[in-house]
Amino acid sequence: MHEHLLSWITFLPLLAVPMVLVLPKAWVGAARWIVLFFMGVVLALSVWLYFLYNVSAPVNAYSAELPDMQFVERASWIPSMNVQYLVGVDGLSVPMVLLTTVVSFVGVIASWNTKLQKGYFVLYTLLYVGMMGVFVSLDFFLFYVFWEVMLLPMYFLIGIWGGPRKEYAAIKFFLYTLFGSVFMLLVLIGFYFFSDADPSPDRVVHTFNLMELSRTGTLVGVLGDGAPIRVLAWLALFLGFAIKVPVFPFHTWLPDAHVEAPTAISVILAGVLLKMGTYGLLRVNYFVLPAETAAFGAYLIVILGIVNIVYGALAAMAQKDLKKLIAYSSVSHMGFVMLGMGAMNGPGLSGAVFQMFNHGTITSMLFLLVGVIYDRAHHRNIDGFGGLAAIVPKYASFTAFAFFAALGLPGLSGFISEALCFIGGFQRYPVLTIVSTSGVVLGAAYLLWTMQRVFLGKPNEEYRTLEEISLREILSLAPVGLFVLVLGIYPVPMLDLMAPTLARLEPVLRAFL
Amino acid sequence: MNSPDVSATMMLLLLPEVLLTGGLLVIILLEVFLTRLRRSWGHGLAPIAFFVYLAAIVSLVGGAFMSNATGGSVPSILNGEVRSDGLAFYFRFLLLVVGAIVSLILYGNPELKGIPSFEMHLLVMGTVLGGMLMSLSSGMIMLYVSVEFVSILAYILTGLKVRDPRAAEGAIKYIVFGGVASAVMLLGLSYLYGLTGSLSLDALHVFVQTNSSRMQGLVFLAALAFVFAGLGYKVAVVPFHAWAPDVYQAVPAPITAFFTLAPKIAGFALILRFAGSVYGIDGIQGGRFFGAVAGGIGVLTMTVGNLSALKQSSVKRLLAWSSIAHAGYIIAALAAYSELAFRSMGFYLMAYVLMNTGAFLVLMVVASEGGNDDLRSFAGLSRRGRTGAFWAASMTIFLFSLTGLPPFVGFIGKYYLFAALLEREHYWIALVGVINTVVSLYYYARILHTIYFIEPVDPSPKGLFYPVHYTVLASLLAVATLALGIFPDVVAIPFR
Q1: Chain B residues lying within 8 Å of A151, measured CB to CB
Q2: Residues on B contacting A at a C-beta cutoff of 8 Å
Q3: Could you give phi then psi for residue A72, rounded to 5 degrees?
Q4: What ipTM describes this predicted complex?
Q5: Model confidence over A394-442: pLDDT tens digits?
Q6: Closest approach of chain B CAs to the CA of A29, in angstroms?
Q7: What is the rounded distance in angstroms from the CA atom of residue B72 to the CA atom of residue B62?
């Protein structure tokens, strides 16, 4: 079972699809239970994966030199193109796998009462498979296929189950992301043809294997070490991933998509999809093209990261729609990831990856909570509420918890990751880091101000009879909230997990500085 | 096997063509002898045609096995005019499959009411036969004759709906355009004959290799350009495409589907044969120039095709322009002029057959209800009738495949094409190609948008009217589109 754990985690929920499709009309309610069951199973499997992952006793390591890449499965998929079904996880991907299963599980609970459940849950499952596939793929072609596969269900999920401007948001998301991806496709093909995995001079072996490509000397010819086209390749990849993160100025699809998507989809979008962008940057740009990253890439990432942080925060401050505010705060928080990544040192990288995980959990909570109030009031206008703390105290406390996590209150996980990013960033870019700390202040500003407008002050008469947060909604918050709380006090389990892989990456980058 | 006489082996290799000719004769005889029962007998033709195609496929595959077993030397027949090799095999196979599928589509299609069915099946089968002959051509006479064969039959097929003025207009446009194109091609061929003294395409290869005078070289290039113009018209690439949208619009949807498939496949067979013969693969300097021109044409075609498709409100016209764009992707790959390029073009054509046929099938089903192929008739398809969701889902698969998204075969096809281009460092062409892909998403998604996001125009949804076997056909195509997208290696591409 261990050897194929990743395949199980990725593909098991597909079994839910035929089950849901054959459900007769009277039994449609069973669909969500089926999917919940499968998501629960993969959640358990991913937790098991976490406990099994062990650098000193690696399970199915990729090679003796790379003991941190474990649970590797290899099968020939399209021999004529030398494409393999190659999956595996390391310190970078295990947190992402865990994040995906947790958020997907929570998302099902949040989607409990959606309309047209059969279609919804089929698409939801397909989306999950796509996301998980991206995080476990070690073959670039496979990675790309999963990356694109994710777009189809997303388009429909936003476009059918979304808000008033759903069609616009859906096609904007699709076109924008596809535009970035096709550049990735070109680099993907380029990597293949200009790679040689076989050191012996008599034959040339092209490969999509990201581990092979990450070794110096595998990329040859036009993309050989030191070649100028590599810069173009780095930028093309950056474009594709940057759109996903989203990096300013490629972020304009995000507010629309987040606002119009239904609650659970917003949760997944912000909780997982955004991380795929930074994950891609690390997995491909950092590992495969470290020289370019060290030369200019990291600096570019840091600069844009700062812009994300400050612009995102300022834009959030200006919002009247609660969901849009949180969307912009996501832009801002992903900026911290970029700052940490750009630092290219121990604290920076750990902070970045940890922030990826934490932001996933925190933002999930935020969107879930917005969903709660939207379900009841049918609007998200911040100024339309007031004094809700007196009316729905439980809801208010959950929201307070989430808001404090978002602004990086010590004791909650966000603080640790942000602090690590700052420490790392300060070591390399002191001035820029100081500028970025304003993001914390601004974050506190808009979050606390929002809290004041919505929960404090005189209770709004219109909402006297507002329903308190329900058990189901609390259950959807609990898993992610737990991570936020526990990791804030004891982040070691997560940090130690990432350490070996990041320790492998750091010297490679440093060599090119 | 260079003997000019008719021999048993030769007949066996050409058995598929013989069978099709037999099929044509059967249809003619049936028409003559069943004049009284003509109207009721029209329906029986499609199954007959289908079985003829099946028999031909079997004989084709059998012949390939046999020639492999007997040592597989490539026989040249009829004084080098016909060559039965891997390229010919693949394209004949593809054409026969198209014929079989089309015969199924023609069976019971409501749009074909005003059309005499004997003539229609005759012409379709004849076109397939002509296309197969095009795939077999390796000499100039065969080349010209087969192209003309296909063209003339296509002209008649366009104008077959006698009482429809649009059909007549389309036919005239086709004839005029095609006539000029053929004349130009013939002129080019005659110059090539003059330069080389031989009718065989291989002689061109020899000519290119010997260092000839500058003047001769220029004439040669001009002649090549003329021939290429004729072939380019057949596959409808820019700037020889002007006839296509009008003709495609003028005929009923099943015939449009046929037109976007068979002539293009046959045309590409000949283009590949021509390109391969003249310059060889990984060929000489001239090959690079030729390839660059092809790349330029491809880029123009895909751009014009995609941009024009954006403006269409009729889905039929949209699919017509999209097939022009797809021809553009294929011909752009020729810039690479490598084995991978040739293989990718062949693969893409197969993928194209699957996705395009599927899309047209759904179009026919939807158009049958309202009688019009406008975008609005797709509204709310997913919720219409009892099978609306099935058709909506199929269309989703076909449209995403046409865009070139995984996990469908269209993605693998596009991937192959771009791979061929990048292998030979044609970065700009590939770049334009991918940007065009994104553009195409917009208009394909617009159809899906109408299907899923918009309410049906008619509040009381009637059922969709279509022959029963369409469902089976659509399912098969959809499954194939998905399956081959995940496991493309199932289709091994035999190539010389």
Answers
A1: 405
A2: 400, 405-407, 411, 415, 418-419, 422-423, 425, 427, 430-431, 434-435, 437-438, 441-442, 445, 449, 452-453, 487-489
A3: -75, 135
A4: 0.88
A5: 999 999 999 999 999 999 999 999 999 999 999 999 999 999 998 899 9
A6: 20
A7: 13
